[in-house]
Amino acid sequence: MEGFIKETGKQIKLSGIQKAAILLGELGPDASAGVIENLHLTPRETKKIVRAMKKLGKYKINNPVQVQRELMVLTETANYGIRKGIYKRSTRKDDFITQNKNDISNMISSNPDAIANLLRSWLGD
Predict the structure, then answer these.
(1) Exposed (0-12), middle (13-18) or buried (19+): which is 86, by Cβ within 10 Å?
(2) Of the ranges 16-25, 32-41, 45-54, which one carries the lowest mean pLDDT score?
């Protein structure tokens, strides 16, 4: 995990590939497969994402850095969906992370091309 996240003060900096790896890891294999299919990645790009996902390691909810990076990526994804008019925040009172993961999974299943576009923009970082 060391060297995966660059910290400057309290702000975590993530590369585009790291954001993509976090989002795909959060969504699970089924939702991720649909997004990856819409990305039309080269074998090299696919390897980069897989490597980044492996570097993430096992998620630990009690690790504040992991929770912060997850929240950053879920928030950025939700905001993208809101700007594109394809995501509407739920009014449920669930846990914020669980709620966003479920809502984003629904957004992806209904519009995988849009999320693929977001990931493409991250991969261009």
Answers:
(1) middle
(2) 32-41
Distance CA 100, CA 112 (A): 16
How confident is the model over 61-87, as a mean pLDDT? 84
Q: What pLDDT does residue 7 have? A: 46
With beta carbons less than 8 A apart as the criterion, state whether 92 and 99 touch. yes
Dist CA 32 CA 8 (whole Å): 30
Residue with tokens 């995990």: 1
The pLDDT score that the predictor gives to residue 19 is: 92
Q: What DSSP element (H or E) covers 97? A: helix 96-110
Whether the Cβ atoms of residue 112 and residue 77 lie closer than 8 Å to each other: no
Q: Which of 70, 48, 74 is nearest to 60 (CA)?
A: 70
Q: How far is CA 15 from CA 5, 69, 86, 111, in A?
A: 9, 11, 25, 24
Tokens at 65, concatenated: 């850095």
What is the DSSP-derived secondary structure letter of residue 5? Answer: S
